Amino acid sequence: MMMIVSPVGARLSAARGPKVTLITSSLVMALGYGLSVVLLGSTWGLLVITCVCAIGVGFAYGSMPALIMGAVPRSETGAANSFNTLMRSIGTTVSAAVVGVVLSQLTIDFGGHPLPSERGFHVGMLIGCGAALAAALITMTLPGDGGPPRRVLVPADPAPATES
Under the phi-then-psi rule, with left for phi > 0, alpha for psi from -120 to 50, and beta for the rest, what region is 31? Predict the structure, then answer.
């Protein structure tokens, strides 16, 4: 899904700016996680939830570097994008740990073995929904109107004078 929607995200960023794309991606992810309230009990429901969330992630992964590139000096773009990658890794690790704690606390007994309950998965998905909504709100506070990226025209160096 991320590969399928990435061109759509790129067109949205070109037309409205990466800020709008990131807000949209956060809201799409929130929708995906929110759908778990009614769809989590079936295989098809889980597929829909996963696809909707992946669409949001695809939009976000394209818009974040564009936002970063527009917010830092050219000399700092490598460091800023590396920091973004590091923060994504930390976010993934922390969120996996949080959901792991939730699932380990909300269990059912199955033949003497504790297994995560459906309620645990619902709580984990609702945490994801809340985090996505918080991301949308935080993105709305970023400076700029979210319009298309500005193109900076740099004059070409004049051709060196030749001696005859």
Answer: alpha
Instruction: Enumerate residues 6+ apart whose C-beta is below 8 A from 40.
Output: 46, 49, 118, 121, 122, 125
What pLDDT, on the 0 to 100 scale, is given for residue 152?
46
Q: How far apart are CA 72 and CA 157, in angstroms?
A: 24
pLDDT of 122 > 80? The answer is yes
* Spatial distance between the Cα atoms of 15 and 149, rounded to a whole number of angstroms: 9
Which ranges in 17-145 belong to alpha helices (H)?
A: 18-39, 43-71, 77-105, 118-140
Q: What is the pLDDT, as a whole number, of residue 153?
A: 46
Q: What CA–CA distance (Å, rounded) separates 132 from 49?
A: 14
C-alpha dist (Å) from residue 106 to 3, 102, 103, 118, 121: 34, 6, 5, 8, 9
How far is residue 107's CA from residue 115's CA, in Å, rounded to a whole number?
A: 5
This prediction's pTM: 0.82
| Residue-wise DSSP of 12-45 | HHHHH-HHHHHHHHHHHHHHHHHHHHHHTTSHHH
Local confidence band at 157 (pLDDT 50, 70, 90 cut-offs): low
Q: How many CB atoms lie within 10 A of CB 12?
A: 19
